[in-house]
Amino acid sequence: xxxxxxxxxxxxxxxxxxxxxWILENAKNVFQNxxxxxxxxxxxxxxxxxxxxxxxxxxxxxxxxxxxSIGGADKNSSSITLRPENTAGVVRAFIEHNIxxxxxxxxxxxxxxMFRYERPQAGRQRQFHQIGVxxxxxxxxxxxxxxxxxAVEFLKSVGLGDLEVEINSLGCTKxxxxxxxxxxxxLAPYLDKLCDDCKMRYEKNPLRILDCxxxxxxxxFEIEEVKNVIFSDYICDDCREHxxxxxxxxxELDIKxxxxxxxxxxLDYYNRTVFEIKSNALGSQSAVCGGGRYDGLVEMLGGxxxxxxxxxxxxxxxxxxxxxxxLQKSKYFIVSNNFSExxxxxxxxxxxxxxxxxxxxxxxxxxxxxxxxxxSHYAIILGEDEIKEGYFSVKNLKTSTQExxxxxxxx
Length: 411
Known about the structure:
single chain; BirA Bifunctional Protein, domain 2; eight-stranded mixed β-sheet
């Protein structure tokens, strides 16, 4: 029986790699030009990190985590989880390495695999990859603006220009809790009509009900008295000023945005600003990026109170939208039946950081030239005369012109 990749995972093969590398290179250029340093965290963490940080009312923690117990009966048993997202891991690293002692802001970007047990579909896998940024230490809306700007600039750099930012403010702890209570009160008469997930969210985090995709729950949101509460403005004056100032910055930057009162995001740690960036190219799954503020998360996970904001986006979804890049051809293909001379020349070229390849099967020159025309820009012909007299015949495989090169330094 042939062993195949596990459901929800995917091999990334050589015809796809150039596009992946191009996406990653654009991320590196955009974020590092803005002062974000790359950070790499482990792909598994203590389960408690996600239970506390992401929130036990979220679908991620309740349904989607890959969790394992480690340690035998004679050892202290502990639980680890493959990371379903990376913000909690970056915050853990921020606390563990006392990065908060450095002068703010502390700005990071990352790329790597994440893991969620969910139904695989287009652009969504059980092992998937995310690119994201996290910014610590700045409570002002200038940080929100910087993060949103970098997300937009990166998406533009990979050719996605038809973008719109949806934004909302969940408020600070005080006004967010008032909003939660108002939602609970107005939904109380309809509790038995909510889906099972929303019944749990009702007790743990009623804001998450607004993120429900169940059609029966959506109908309840359309009831006039419910609608009036959902779309009421519960945020305090400070939160309102923060939000309006951010909107003003986005206006000045000509970043297209709209306000969406139902936007809450799927993680419990968000407060104040939340946002999603959408592209019409994706149809119903239009969000290509999501993020927001999580000012309480560092303290919740054992650090000092630290404002923070960030975003993440799925690379598989990005890949489905961008123009695909072709495999890069090598500069030279050495055509010869003398392996010793061929491998020595290839070694010298590669030492000069010049790409070079050759045939390994000692085939006829016609077959080697056929391979060269598919994989390289130039063919270096090393026949008996070239080897004996110490020169190179170099053929331009695009124009079919050929010239004699007398010195290696001229290659």
